[in-house]
Amino acid sequence: MIPEQVYDELSFPGLPSFNITIDTLFAQKQVVIEAIKAGTEAYDLYYTLSRFPSKGHVVIGKGEAACIALAKTTEGIVASNNLKDISSYIEEFGLKHVTTGDILVEAYEGKHITEDEGNTIWAGMRRKGRRIGAETFSEYLVSKYT
């Protein structure tokens, strides 16, 4: 499930490969784009997180807020590298959370990608300015296994 807000944030000309991949998965019914409907528990939480958070919390982006709201109301998993903004909510709501590194490790362990492919993906993310920690996927793997 991909929140509509996340799909909208990532659906711009700078990410054509993302659009093709998601649209293909959508056509194959492997992923759904989920709207948050007004008047639902998910909407109330989304609105609070993205506009008027409770005392001690900061306003978070619409994509992050949508992920958290849907994960909380559907017992889903939040996939995000934006730990700075969301970690307090992940902990407070007891949500499951994965990062890109976690997903790549799972793909590697399941033999869906090689270590070299993981390094290529990792390098591409770093070139785009993503804050993902280790310099390489190989370094990330070592840190996960030690």
Structural class: mainly alpha
Taking strands numbered 1, 2, ... along the chain, how are they ordered across the largest sheet?
1-2
Q: Main β-sheet, in a few words?
A: 2 strands, parallel
Shape: globular
Radius of gyration: 16 Å
Give the strand tally.
Answer: 4
Mean pLDDT score, rounded? 88
Alpha plus pi helix count: 8
Order of helices and strands: EHHEHHEHEHHH
Strand content: 5-15%
The percent of residues in helical segments reads 55-70%
C-alpha termini separation: 32 Å
Uncertain segments: none
Please tell me about this protein's structure:
The chain is mainly α. The protein has eight helices and four strands, in the order βααβααβαβααα. The strands form two sheets. It has a two-stranded parallel ribbon. Strand 3, helix 5 and strand 4 form a beta-alpha-beta unit. Helix 1 runs antiparallel to helix 4 and helix 3 packs antiparallel against helix 4. The relative contact order is 0.10.
Detail the topology: elements first, then pairings.
Elements: E1 2-3, H1 4-10, H2 16-27, E2 33-34, H3 41-51, H4 62-74, E3 77-79, H5 83-93, E4 96-98, H6 100-109, H7 115-127, H8 137-145
Parallel strand pairs: 1-2, 3-4
Short description:
The chain is mainly alpha-helical and 146 residues long. The chain is built from 8 helices and 4 strands. The strands form 2 sheets. A two-stranded parallel sheet has the order 1-2. A two-stranded parallel ribbon has the order 3-4.
